[in-house]
Amino acid sequence: MKPINLISDTVTKPTPGMLDAMFNAEVGDDVFREDPTVNALEAKVAALFGKEAALFCPSGTMTNQIALKTHTQPLDEVICDEYSHIYQYEVGGYAFHSAISVNLIQGQHGKVTAPQVEAAIKPVADWLPASRLVVLENTANKGGGSYYTTGEVQPIRDLCLERGLKLHLDGARIFNALVETGESPLAVGAQFDSISVCLSKGLGAPVGSVLTGEAEFIRKARRIRKVMGGGMRQAGYLAAAGIFALDHHIHRLKEDNLHARHLGQLLNQLPYVGNVRPVQTNIVIFDVLPPLTAASFLEQLAQNGILASPFGPQTVRFVTHLDVNADMIDRVMAVLPKLG
Ligand SMILES: *Cc1c(COP(=O)(O)O)cnc(C)c1O
């Protein structure tokens, strides 16, 4: 039997419908802005979030890194939660590409509040980094898939406006949040100077992320993409997958979130499990109790055809996605009580 892969929502493969859309894409040279499918994807994402322009990139790391570089100057700093992807999982790119420092907040489940951001903003002095940019992550990956509502973001937005800071959203999984809150992408777009959205996570595209913002921001961002080597040519084949994903795979993210919730409810009842982080979207993070370790538990899972990833010596992460259906979740739920 094929293993059930809960390692990440990046493992999804294109569906037949998506492959069809890719094969039939009309393409051109996107570095010359002549790929109609890339142009259509960028226009679509910009319109969704009520922004003027957008930029298709190979990865979410690149869209985030381009945003950092475009919003800042060397010797500035970015304020973010200590769990942030831009700090944890982007190879320290903020220092490498942008020559900026990072000012970390200890939030809750990857989320920060306006008072915490306010306390982090540095006064202006020759010997201090200049606080220039705040980055929020929605949903928060290492935070266990927790999400912000627009009501929670608004005080942070107001603070940034008042203090002259830019606000970027790492919205790798923003649609996993929006299917829960019922809020519109337009409301989110109005709160941020720039937004990065991953097409290659639960949305199911094989490659790609989109950065969206105002026209002048994206004009600068396009040059940064080029210097990073991210200018692709007939990228419309990939953009077609992204358009298909946005048209067909947003609504169904609700299923992934529901599957994760079911897994979380079961884990909470198992004697060998502790500290199941609150499950808000498609990520489940929990500890296994000694004598189990994450490694020994993952081995037991693998013997039962289930793949997951370690998130610490005692900590395990499950991620639900497009390629894990309800039957597979039932199989996982049947196996879990037998382990330990
Ligand atoms: C996956 C992810 C990214 C981007 O990752 P890539 O693998 O570079 O596309 C950015 N932010 C968060 C929160 C993510 O989970």
Word description of this protein:
The chain is an alpha/beta fold. The protein has 2 domains: 12-248, Aspartate Aminotransferase, domain 2 (3-Layer(aba) Sandwich); 252-338, Aspartate Aminotransferase, domain 1. It is 41% helix and 17% strand. The protein has helices at residues 16-23, 36-49, 60-71, 85-88, 93-98, 114-120, 150-163, 174-181, 185-189, 215-227, 236-248, 253-267, 294-303, 326-335; strands at 4-5, 53-57, 76-81, 101-105, 130-137, 166-171, 194-198, 209-213, 273-274, 283-288, 306-307, 309-310, 315-319. A 7-stranded mixed sheet has the order 2-8-7-6-5-3-4, sandwiched between helices. Strands 9-10-13-12 form a 4-stranded antiparallel sheet, covered by helices on one side. It has a two-stranded parallel sheet with strand order 1-11. Helix 2 (36-49) packs parallel to helix 11 (236-248). The longest helix is centred in the last third of the chain and has 15 residues, at 253-267. It is globular. The two termini are 22 Å apart. The model has no long low-confidence stretch (mean pLDDT 98). Bound molecules: pyridoxal-5'-phosphate. The site of pyridoxal-5'-phosphate has 13 residues, from helix 3.
